[in-house]
């Protein structure tokens, strides 16, 4: 009996231990409970099970200067799994007194868990400049700088300028895990961000001293209004390794990890208006250096044929921000709407390439048709003057076909003569007929029978093929691009799921899926790709602000993941977020 009681007590103890081990833990940890007004507080939200939909508190009374930094630990010891995950923030207090860090929440296995609020006491600023943290902050301030380099601060209206954001750091510190906190906004500018495939450390100078630097962002801007315009700053959250005065067991210097918020500051651009003196009447806002080319694929043709007239402007300047001159033709030539093509590339010097309109023209009558010359005007910011180009007049010769109706003289009325008949006039009529019997054959089973049976079926199949051919050839090019982009979005989203764990392939496929989804839903090209424009177009499509913010967040994570370490758990979270936001946007737009 005693052995049986001992067995049940042991079983109950093991069950209780297992229940305690399986219990979900989600709590808040702070680096200190009492700190000075000029000190920094580290707050970590730790859990022992993986969760979704993490919501941090508002951090009222604090300024977030770093984070969230996510860390995951997953290990097996003697067959027992040990898992931990944390979100870490770095805070600066804004006032003295008792400040409370509110509740954070997360969803684990369908249940929502919340932390217990934690209070800290903030005192007067600590007068301890020799403290390790104060010394580390001073070293970072002296050796880390974010600079916005603007190619020209007083451009003309619609003249291209470039902005390069460079992160300078000395050889005394090490920089890693860079994230954008605040992206620059280019109000009253047409903007195009030049993608940077790989960050490269280069040597340069900052205020006359040798520095390493990384070009974080490149953007081309075209001012759309004159006057004083302001470029909003770019703000980065940078993790820095700072050397200390301590050394390890082997004599190597010990480094201290310090988060730092750096900003490039606002930049002011003074945009000059285009001069009024000498402005041509047909000026349409083109600024740059351009050439005009008007060509015809043929100048001699029949009236049943057609010819193409192409108006092309090429060079360097704001090619996407003005309209091409209109093609004019005589009224006897039927002119159809033009097909517009753009072959434009954008680099730090601005847009360069060509744009063209191709018109299809059909003559109605034969004759000679003079095509008047076409004029095109633009402002050259280098010469600071207007330039006007004009094409040559062209003669189109239509040598066959109907002649245009012209007034004719009234003809005399002809004399009416009586017809002359003879006896042989009706000899071709036979008065006696010879009937020949017709051989009859049964219809069923004959060639005519099968021809009548199969002809409707063959005709139906041919009609379907012709209708499908017409539908494929008349589909709107924009619709075709949207369907292709939708297929590509599904393809790359599926590809991203297959390569979970490979950071480079995963985020490349995920970003391609997001790009093609935008092409399908918003009808925009990659060259027009900017987060501000995406947000504006999604708002026009009646998408909610939450889904727009989530979509922009996934894009930013894809960009940042190229240069920061990432785990398989993080990749799965980013994939789930992308799938969720795409599904939500589909329901809305």
How would you describe this structure in keywords?
38% strand, 589 residues, Immunoglobulin-like, five-stranded antiparallel beta sheet, 8 helices, alpha+beta, 4 domains
Second CATH tier, the architecture of the largest domain: Sandwich
Number of strands: 30
Q: Kindly estimate the percentage of residues that lie in beta strands according to DSSP.
A: 35-45%
Major sheet attributes: 5 strands, antiparallel
Can you count the helices? 8
Instruction: Outline the low-pLDDT stretches.
Output: 14-21, 407-422
CATH class of the largest domain: Mainly Beta
Task: Compute the average pLDDT.
Answer: 81
What would you call the shape?
Answer: flat
Assign the structural class, choosing from mainly alpha, mainly beta, alpha/beta, alpha+beta, or little secondary structure.
alpha+beta
Rg for CA atoms: 39 Å
How many angstroms separate the termini?
72 Å
CATH topology value of the largest domain: Immunoglobulin-like
Q: Estimate percent helicity.
A: 25-40%
The total tally of domains equals 4
What is shown here, in short?
With 589 residues, the chain is α+β, with helices and mostly antiparallel strands. It is 25% helix and 38% strand.
What does this structure look like?
This protein has 4 domains: 22-126, Immunoglobulin-like (Sandwich); 134-271, Immunoglobulin-like (Sandwich); 288-398, Sandwich (Immunoglobulin-like), CATH 2.60.40; 477-588, Nucleotidyltransferases  domain 2 (Four Helix Bundle (Hemerythrin (Met), subunit A), Up-down Bundle). Helix 5 (503-522) packs parallel to helix 8 (568-588) and helix 7 (545-561) runs antiparallel to helix 8 (568-588). The strands form 9 sheets. Strands 11, 12, 14, 15 and 16 form a 5-stranded antiparallel beta sheet that branches. The protein contains 8 helices and 30 strands. Helices cover 25% and strands 38% of the residues. It has helices spanning 2-22, 132-143, 447-473, 477-498, 503-522, 531-540, 545-561, 568-588; strands at 26-30, 34-36, 41-47, 52-55, 62-77, 80-93, 97-101, 105-108, 111-114, 118-123, 144-150, 161-169, 174-182, 189-194, 202-206, 209-223, 227-231, 235-247, 253-263, 267-271, 288-296, 300-301, 307-317, 333-335, 339-347, 350-363, 367-371, 375-380, 385-390, 394-398. With 589 residues, it is an alpha+beta fold. It is flat.
């Amino acid at each position: 009996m005693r052995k049986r009681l001992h067995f049940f007590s042991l079983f109950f103890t093991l069950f209780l231990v297992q229940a305690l081990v399986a219990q979900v833990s989600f709590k808040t940890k702070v680096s200190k409970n009492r700190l000075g007004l000029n000190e920094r507080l580290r707050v970590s939200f730790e859990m022992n099970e993986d969760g979704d939909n993490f919501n941090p508190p508002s951090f009222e009374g604090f300024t977030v200067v770093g984070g969230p930094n996510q860390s995951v630990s997953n290990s097996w010891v003697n067959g027992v799994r040990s898992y931990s995950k944390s979100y870490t923030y770095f805070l600066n207090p804004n006032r003295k007194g008792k400040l409370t860090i509110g509740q954070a929440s997360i969803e684990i296995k369908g249940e929502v868990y919340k932390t217990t609020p934690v209070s800290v006491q903030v005192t007067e600023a600590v007068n301890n400049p020799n403290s390790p943290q104060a010394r580390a902050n001073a070293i970072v301030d002296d050796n880390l700088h974010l600079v916005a380099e603007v190619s020209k601060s007083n451009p003309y209206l619609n003249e291209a300028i470039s902005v390069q954001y460079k992160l300078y750091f000395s050889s005394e510190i090490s920089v890693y895990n860079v994230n954008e906190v605040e992206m620059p906004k280019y109000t009253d500018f047409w903007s195009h961000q030049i993608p940077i495939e790989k960050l490269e450390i280069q040597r340069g100078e900052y205020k006359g001293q040798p520095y390493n630097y990384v070009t974080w962002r490149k953007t081309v801007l075209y001012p759309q209004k004159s006057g004083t315009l302001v470029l909003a700053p770019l703000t980065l959250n940078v993790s820095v390794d700072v050397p200390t005065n301590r050394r390890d067991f082997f004599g190597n210097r010990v480094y201290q990890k310090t988060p730092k918020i750096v900003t490039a500051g606002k930049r002011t651009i003074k945009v000059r208006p285009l001069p009024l003196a000498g402005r041509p009447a047909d000026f349409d806002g083109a600024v740059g250096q351009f050439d005009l080319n008007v060509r015809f694929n043929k100048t001699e043709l029949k009236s049943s044929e057609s010819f193409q007239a192409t108006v092309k402007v090429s060079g360097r300047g704001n090619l996407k921000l003005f309209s091409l001159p209109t093609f004019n033709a005589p009224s006897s030539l039927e002119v159809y709407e033009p097909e517009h093509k753009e072959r434009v590339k954008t680099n730090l010097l601005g847009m360069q390439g060509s744009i063209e309109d191709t018109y299809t023209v059909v003559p109605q009558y034969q004759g000679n048709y003079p095509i008047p010359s076409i004029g095109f005007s633009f402002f050259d910011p280098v010469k600071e003057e207007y330039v006007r180009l004009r094409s040559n007049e062209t003669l189109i010769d239509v040598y066959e076909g109907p002649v245009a109706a012209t007034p004719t003289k009234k003809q005399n009325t002809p004399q009416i003569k009586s017809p002359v008949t003879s006896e042989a006039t009706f000899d071709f009529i036979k008065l006696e007929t010879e009937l020949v019997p017709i051989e009859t054959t049964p219809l069923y089973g004959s060639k005519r029978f099968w021809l009548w049976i199969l002809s409707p079926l063959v005709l139906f199949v041919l009609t379907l093929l012709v209708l499908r051919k017409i539908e494929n050839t008349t589909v709107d090019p924009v619709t075709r691009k949207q369907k292709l982009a939708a297929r590509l979005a599904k393809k790359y989203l599926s590809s991203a799921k297959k390569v979970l764990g490979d950071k480079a392939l995963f985020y490349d496929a995920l970003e391609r899926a997001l790009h093609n989804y935008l092409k399908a839903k918003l009808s925009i090209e990659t060259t027009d790709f900017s987060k501000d424009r995406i947000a504006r177009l999604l708002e026009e499509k009646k998408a909610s602000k939450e889904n727009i913010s989530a979509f922009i967040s996934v894009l930013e994570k894809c960009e940042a993941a190229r240069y920061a370490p990432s785990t398989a758990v993080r990749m799965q979270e980013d994939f789930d977020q992308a799938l969720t936001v795409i599904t939500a946007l589909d329901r809305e737009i």
